[in-house]
Amino acid sequence: MEILAFGVQADEKPLLEKAFAGHYEIRCLDVFLNEDTAPIATGHEIVCTSVNCDLGSGVLEILAAGGTRMVAQRSTGFNNIDLQVAERLGLRVARVSSYSPYSVAEFAWTLAMAVNRRVVRAATRTRDFDFRLDGLMGRDMHGRTAGIVGTGKIGEAFARIAHGFGMRLLGWDVAENPACLELGMTYVSKDRLLAESDLVSLHVPLMPQTSRLIDADALKLMKDDAILVNSSRGGLVDSAALVAELREGRFTGVGLDVYEAEAGLFFLDKSLEAIEDDTLARLVTFPNVLVTSHQAYYTVDAVGQIVEATAQNVLDYTAGLRSANVLVPRS
């Protein structure tokens, strides 16, 4: 049996091939799954997808009609999948429940420190042999307040790094994490966290109740010189509202590894095309904004774990087994 994998990055391909070696053939495509590419999967019982693939009702209908019976998603997030339609069509859908939280937490800190210490601007200058310090002044993180929105495994890892900097820790979540409490974190309301934090980092999943969690009202609560980092899901932030605040000269820095309309853009080379997304085009022009292309998870450790878990999901399916990674069927 051949498994068809969509949206595979060049660095990811050998890891996938190694994970499935001795079990099944895997055909890796760099194109993403959508209604135009879904017919390619005809005759493949199992397809493997990434978070920027389109698994809405139309795509799922095409897959099911072509003989697909399982979708193995190579991510923790699954907001791109219409689970109700998948269940109606009799598809099994599995994801990767967890992988190295350090990959994302460390990258979130990379974004925070890059915008705080003006690293991109400094590197650009020195390539032109401009060694002035004007406009490069940052600030110590020690003694300042880190607000962590979502204190699961990734939020906890981020908090441990903040604790190492000697920061005051504020947290917001539906449940308190005992490990974060041991670090000295104080759980507060979201409004208080936003108002008191010098650095706000987002680590919650994208669900209906968290969509645009950081909207215009939330942004106005934040300090004018705060740093905002989002390495979770783009839909957590109202991008147009963020642009409006940035135009007012607010925020020391904003680090975004995700964007609410990233599908069809991120993971692709658009350098020779006109970008029709005016909000994204405006965001990247601000000198205090750093946008990266959803790479926080992209370490050999995390991707290796994701690939291994994906392969195990497939093996469980073919063996008639079920694990906690299965989203559909629900029982």
Automatic annotation (TrEMBL):
Residues 6-327 form the D-isomer specific 2-hydroxyacid dehydrogenase catalytic domain. One of its GO terms (molecular function) is NAD binding. CDD domains: LDH_like_2. Keywords: NAD, Oxidoreductase. PROSITE patterns: D_2_HYDROXYACID_DH_1, D_2_HYDROXYACID_DH_3. Residues 110-296 form the D-isomer specific 2-hydroxyacid dehydrogenase NAD-binding domain. Belongs to the D-isomer specific 2-hydroxyacid dehydrogenase family. This is 2-hydroxyacid dehydrogenase. It comes from Streptomyces adustus.
